[in-house]
């Protein structure tokens, strides 16, 4: 088994997308494995998945990670930011371009997403079932599925929106609960929070950039999903996310659902357990 790692910038209409591809050549395998396409959470960048990529490459899986437009090393162009009216961009189109420009021709993919990345992975699965071989959704939402958070949770989200609106980068970044995470993890989350809040306050990235909404929410198309699906969530996550992941698991045929003793960032909070669970699911669904 040999591994070739490449990274570069992909030009898209709205700017540039940074990507990193770890290609594994399994010389003795007749079966061409699908490629894992990792989509990060809206409070992180592609380095969220570093531990998973290292673990799964060692198991023989090729992995593509990238920064969503306006996150990490992916940037909207000045021309796009100045455009009026500014056209929303399509993440599905960006994923198509990454697959076509970076991956081997006719390669199938398994989107693996966390938080907003899970929602995007689900959306890509229902939109591109001809090239998607499986799906892993972690701590995400389901388009079209409604479920209320608690009043306390809603207050925190409103406070975050108000701080962003006021341009208070540090205040928004510091909303994570002290002592909730181990110190190295908390430090990394704070670093990400500051970078992302700054882009959102300046309207140059993060959720300040509008994306194209699907005509039919993914949650209305769960019955069309035929590929294997793995669902993971944290027992201590917000109310809506837990309900959405349970809903996804209940409405997709043969979905496998795993609850972890974590909050939202499952793969960071319990990386070893998450890696083993994902690796076991991949082995059972695609190799055994």
Provide a descriptive summary of the structure in words.
This protein is of the alpha/beta class. Strands 1, 2, 3, 4, 5, 6, 7, 8 and 9 form a nine-stranded mixed β-sheet that branches. The chain has one domain: Rossmann fold (3-Layer(aba) Sandwich). Helix 1 packs across helix 10 (271-286). The protein contains ten helices and nine strands. The protein has helices at 50-58, 78-82, 91-102, 116-127, 151-165, 169-173, 183-201, 239-251, 266-269, 271-286; strands at 2-12, 15-25, 35-39, 63-66, 75-76, 109-114, 135-138, 229-234, 256-260. The mean pLDDT is 92. Residues 36-276 form the AB hydrolase-1 domain.
Q: In the CATH hierarchy, what is the superfamily?
A: Alpha/Beta hydrolase fold, catalytic domain
- The top-level CATH class is Alpha Beta
Radius of gyration: 18 Å
Helix content: 25-40%
Number of helices: 10
How many domains? The number is 1
Oligomer: single chain
Q: How would you describe the shape?
A: globular
Low-confidence stretches at least 5 residues in length (pLDDT < 50)? Answer: none
Pfam families: Abhydrolase_6
Domain AB hydrolase-1: 36-276
Organism: Saxophila tyrrhenica
Protein name: AB hydrolase-1 domain-containing protein
């Amino acid at each position: 088994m040999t591994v070739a790692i490449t990274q570069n910038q992909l030009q898209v209409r709205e700017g540039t997308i940074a990507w990193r591809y770890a290609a594994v050549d399994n010389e003795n395998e007749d079966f061409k494995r699908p490629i894992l396409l990792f989509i990060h959470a809206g409070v992180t960048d592609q380095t969220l998945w570093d531990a998973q990529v290292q673990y799964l490459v060692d198991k023989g899986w090729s992995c593509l990670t990238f920064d969503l437009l306006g996150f990490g090393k992916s940037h909207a162009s000045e021309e796009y930011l100045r455009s009026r009216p500014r056209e929303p961009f399509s993440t599905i189109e960006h994923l198509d371009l990454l697959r076509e420009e970076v991956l081997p021709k006719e390669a199938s993919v398994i989107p693996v997403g966390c938080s907003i990345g899970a929602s995007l992975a689900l959306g890509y699965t229902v939109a591109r079932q001809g090239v998607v071989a499986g799906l892993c959704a972690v701590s995400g939402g389901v388009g079209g599925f409604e479920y209320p958070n608690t009043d306390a949770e809603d207050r925190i989200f409103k406070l975050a929106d108000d701080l962003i609106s006021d341009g208070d980068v540090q205040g928004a970044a510091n909303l994570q609960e002290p002592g909730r995470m181990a110190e190295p993890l908390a430090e990394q989350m704070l670093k990400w929070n500051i970078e992302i809040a700054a882009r959102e306050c300046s309207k140059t990235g993060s959720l300040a950039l509008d994306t194209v909404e699907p005509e039919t929410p993914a949650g209305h198309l769960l019955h069309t999903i035929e590929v294997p699906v793995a669902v993971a969530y944290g027992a201590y996550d917000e109310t809506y996310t837990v309900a959405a992941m349970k809903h996804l698991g209940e409405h997709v045929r043969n979905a496998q659902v795993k609850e972890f003793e974590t909050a939202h960032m499952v793969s960071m909070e319990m990386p070893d357990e998450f890696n083993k669970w994902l690796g076991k699911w991949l082995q059972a669904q695609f190799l055994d």
